[in-house]
Amino acid sequence: MRGAANARREEAADKAAKGRTIEEKQYLVRFNADTRSHLHVLDPEICLTRCPDKICTIFCPAEVYKWEGARMHVGYEGCHECGSCRIGCPHENIKWEYPRGGYGVVFRLG
Ligand code: SF4
Ligand code: SF4
Questions:
Q1: Which of 1, 7, 53, 85 is the most exposed place for a label (fewest CB within 10 A)?
Q2: What family, per the record (predicted)?
Q3: Whose CA is nearest to atom 4 of ligand 2?
Q4: Residue 110 confidence (pLDDT)
């Protein structure tokens, strides 16, 4: 009986989640931000001189990368740990690691 109730609850949550936009789903992710970044732009000069499209500012679903004038700001605290920037940077200019144990994404509600 309890299993059936849990299954119904999960089904209802799943239906509710499917109706949400990606932005709404992002609000449901909880983080425990580390004091140091797990993401590193290896050579800022490459971003400045060889990457006119700054594509990391587009493909990152969490908008972690923001081009500010002449430098890349990396808001690592909001990283969803999807790993896209490991392969998405055309210059392999991002060093990506998981956050240290206990930090980063701790809970996804949807
Ligand atoms: S995609 Fe890579 S090289 Fe281009 S701006 Fe982002 S980090 Fe720099
Ligand atoms: S791992 Fe995903 S969410 Fe995190 S910075 Fe890279 S692209 Fe953005």
A1: 1
A2: To ferredoxins from P.putida and C.tartarivorum, ferredoxin I from A.vinelandii, ferredoxin II from D.desulfuricans.
A3: 79
A4: 53
> What are the residue ranges spanned by the domains of the chain?
2-108
> HSE on the CB side for 13, CA within 13 Å?
11
Best CA proximity match to 74, nearest among 89, 56, 91: 56
Mean pLDDT computed over every residue of the chain: 86
**Burial letters 23-53, b for 16+ CB under 10 A, else e:** eebeeebebeeeeebbbebeeeeebeeebee
> Is residue 26 pLDDT above 90, yes or no?
no
Position in ligand 2 atom list of the atom nearest CA 82:
2
pLDDT of 33-68, one tens digit each? 899 999 999 999 999 999 999 999 999 999 999 999
Which pTM value belongs to this model? Answer: 0.78
Find the 49 Cα to ligand 2 centroid distance in Å: 22
CB distance 105 to 29 below 8 Å: yes
